[in-house]
From TrEMBL:
Family membership noted in the UniProt record: Belongs to the RNase PH family.
InterPro entries: ExoRNase_PH_dom1, ExoRNase_PH_dom2, ExoRNase_PH_dom2_sf, PNPase/RNase_PH_dom_sf, Ribosomal_Su5_D2-typ_SF, RNase_PH, RNase_PH_bac-type, RNase_PH_CS
Enzyme class, spelled out: transferase
UniProt-recorded name of the protein: Ribonuclease PH
Alphabetical keyword list: Nucleotidyltransferase, RNA-binding, rRNA processing, Transferase, tRNA processing, tRNA-binding
Its biological purpose: Phosphorolytic 3'-5' exoribonuclease that plays an important role in tRNA 3'-end maturation. Removes nucleotide residues following the 3'-CCA terminus of tRNAs; can also add nucleotides to the ends of RNA molecules by using nucleoside diphosphates as substrates, but this may not be physiologically important. Probably plays a role in initiation of 16S rRNA degradation (leading to ribosome degradation) during starvation.
Gene: rph
Record Gene3D superfamilies: GHMP Kinase, N-terminal domain (3.30.230.70)
Domain Exoribonuclease phosphorolytic: 10-139, 159-224
One Gene Ontology biological process: rRNA catabolic process
Amino acid sequence: MRPSGRNLDEMRVVSIETGVMRHAEGSCLIKMGNTHVLCTASVEDRTPPFLKNTGLGWVTAEYGMLPRATNKRNRREAATGKQGGRTIEIQRLIGRSLRAGIDRSALGERQITVDCDVIQADGGTRCASITGGWVALELAIRTLMKSGAIATNPIVGNVAAVSCGLYAGQPVLDLDYDEDSAAGVDGNFILLDDGRMIEVQMSGEGSVFSRTDMDAMLALAAKGVDELVAAQKAAL
């Protein structure tokens, strides 16, 4: 029995509310159970120096967690003067994932920065950030197309992410914190809406896993991503 009472292949309740930030070109608030992330997409008419005069655009991301997003207060990283390694790793993952769903030549020489701010954390914050970040990104692209700034839609496909793991020896979908903290194996799966994989992160957390276990978790992830893509499309 999962702590939440969910079935092994059951997602947490997912909701996505769009247009939550007045000034951003794209924004949404995604809730996956008790994990809530505010995602905004901001457009700038510039690119990093290494892309100058290439005709290619860029999508990048920043990630942060509010001090009381968890069960105890964490210091703001700004107060320490530097970002932690976990933060840097997650925001690079978000950026890589979102870029996989965009034709950067159709985007043109501009940059879209997706900010993902965790308001409340209960496991799976990076997956919620990617899934919600995609919605904010697509809304920003729609803003660009509506204004005539770009003529061709640069979207290749929806990007969504979900966690899977081995909890009490069973493959489970969409781990919350209680499961994540006790899982023998933990994985994050980032996929396009056609099933192609962008990135898979899997590691044993005091346990090991077989090829059969991995295949079972991948099947669960594909099911979860299908549900998340449906939620993205409904929100948009």
